[in-house]
Amino acid sequence: MTTPTPDLPRLTRSTPIAPEASGPRVRPTGVGIVHLGWGAFHRAHQAIYTEDAMAETGDLSWGILGDVERSPQVRDAVRPQDGLYTVLTVGLDEHGHTVRSARVVGSVVDVAYPGEETPRLLAAIAAPTTHVVTLTVTEKGYARRPDGRLDVEQAAADIALLAAEEAAGDADVSAAAPATTAMGLLVRGLAARRRAGGAPVTVLSCDNMPENGRVLRGVVDELVDAALPGEAGAALRSYLEESTTFPGSMVDRITPAATPDVLDQVAAAIGARDEAGIVAEPFRQWVIEDRFAGPRPAWERVGAELVPDVVPWENAKLRLLNGTHSVLAYAGRLAGHATLAEAVTDPAIASHARAFMVDDALPTLTPPAGADLLAYGEELLVRFANPATGHTTRQVSTDGTQKIPFRWGEAVAWNLEQGRVPDGVAYGLAAWSEFVRRAVRDGVDLGDPAGAERLTATVHEVGEDRPEDAARALVATPGLLPGDAGTDDRLVDAVLAHVRDLTQAGDGLL
Ligand code: CS2
């Protein structure tokens, strides 16, 4: 616990910060990157690599303009701070003592909210001085239906605006209407870029999805087709084909959503009030497919890996880290554990999490060159057990219908195909379905806006007090598991056995 520090000055470029804290390392001279989905993860990851690359090379043109999707609140926190914010890195040393270091990051030029500043964001995506658009908009930000196709209803307003903007043919976007989806903002920005001269640009997804670059490119193409069928979209399609690339990337750093307590810890560490501070673990990793349409920051000089094929890295991280994370989060919430660190050290949960990781997920993977996946998995369990980040089961349990297909799907499909029942996944599915049933029963927010309506209806149909029937119905939710796996008797039987054990152990939910 730290004491609130209301009298401290606000963090800005001219506020002196405590000598134990470091940074900012740079003051950018312009915007070279537009980032869509400027949240905690971006702050602790890409923004740091980018600041380090600027400091390392002296090329200060790679400043970041961030787009905050959800509300103007984050913008209003960071704008008075000249784009500065703090990352408080917390880990454990070999004796189990907490080690902290605070770093003020200087790579962000400003942050804008599309509800009020779409013209500025479109102009920035269109500017020839911008060379890279990065994204962390989360799985649901890709506006896809359960079958993976673009949800045209969700993107309808942006589709209509894109059609109108292309028909007008004007490069001036100063009167553009607000974008309502991140995908719409991106495609309208790319179209404006074409109209303004068509400079090449790289669009780099940094979201936790397999083949994130290919998925993003698919959504972009579908959005263009919906707005500009046939000849109307010919110019934009050939611009996308010839002058843009959508590389994939694997990103990793455990970065919890900030809490008031984190802001107090940050204030104590830097000696200034920072409304956009965050906490993160020491580990970070970024593997990027080396396929850029134009210039980029020298990320490879500051720890990022540029590789010809990123897919083996993405799969390993998604299935081992994120997959196990989700198992721990749902089981943890049922057992009353607020943090991942508590969940992974509960022996009743840890054995299933390990079974998921080692027995179910690991055999599905082709190790990336030089990687020892068993050692990687062991290291993950140590990272999860770091209590200092306060990473919550509540946060990781969000968006289940969006995350589970990517995290558990392949472990289900691969194992069933080998004639083996993946018992760790079955446990995870049982924990998820009990989480859903108890949340619906108790009126607790599922944190899954894309799936909530369907899941709630399913639980109401079978009855809130029928755990096994609920599990059977929930696991069969369309799009959750690949093919017919959700109704495969072998898998369903294993899920139901775990549901019985879980309900015997208790009926609560955190
Ligand atoms: C987590 C991830 O919230 C979640 O679902 O699994 O955000 C995880 O912490 C990051 O991917 C770690 O890199």
| pLDDT averaged over residues | 97
Q: In percent, how helical is the residue content? A: 40-55%
Shape: globular
CATH class of the largest domain, named Alpha Beta
What fold name goes in the CATH topology slot of the largest domain?
Rossmann fold
Name the CATH architecture of the largest domain. 3-Layer(aba) Sandwich
In terms of topology, how is this protein built?
Layout: E1 31-36, H1 40-44, H2 46-57, E2 63-67, H3 73-78, E3 85-92, E4 98-105, E5 108-112, H4 114-126, E6 132-135, H5 156-168, H6 182-195, E7 201-205, H7 212-227, H8 234-243, E8 244-245, E9 249-252, H9 260-270, E10 278-280, E11 285-289, E12 305-307, H10 311-335, H11 340-344, H12 347-361, H13 373-384, H14 393-396, H15 400-417, H16 423-442, H17 452-462, H18 467-475, H19 489-505
Parallel strand pairs: 1-2, 1-6, 2-5, 3-10, 6-7, 7-8, 11-12
Antiparallel strand pairs: 3-4, 9-11
Bound molecules: D-mannonic acid (CS2).
Provide structural commentary.
The strands form three sheets. Strands 5-2-1-6-7-8 form a six-stranded parallel beta sheet. It has a three-stranded mixed beta sheet with strand order 4-3-10, with helices on both faces. The chain has a three-stranded mixed beta sheet with strand order 9-11-12, with helices on one face. A hairpin with a 5-residue loop joins strand 3 and strand 4. It is globular. The chain is of the alpha/beta class and 510 residues long. The two termini are 22 Å apart. The chain folds into two domains: 31-307, 3-Layer(aba) Sandwich (Rossmann fold); 311-505, N-(1-d-carboxylethyl)-l-norvaline Dehydrogenase, domain 2 (Orthogonal Bundle). The chain has helices at residues 40-44, 46-57, 73-78, 114-126, 156-168, 182-195, 212-227, 234-243, 260-270, 311-335, 340-344, 347-361, 373-384, 393-396, 400-417, 423-442, 452-462, 467-475, 489-505; strands spanning 31-36, 63-67, 85-92, 98-105, 108-112, 132-135, 201-205, 244-245, 249-252, 278-280, 285-289, 305-307. Bound molecules: D-mannonic acid. D-mannonic acid binds at residues 208, 252-254, 322, 325, 395-396, 403.
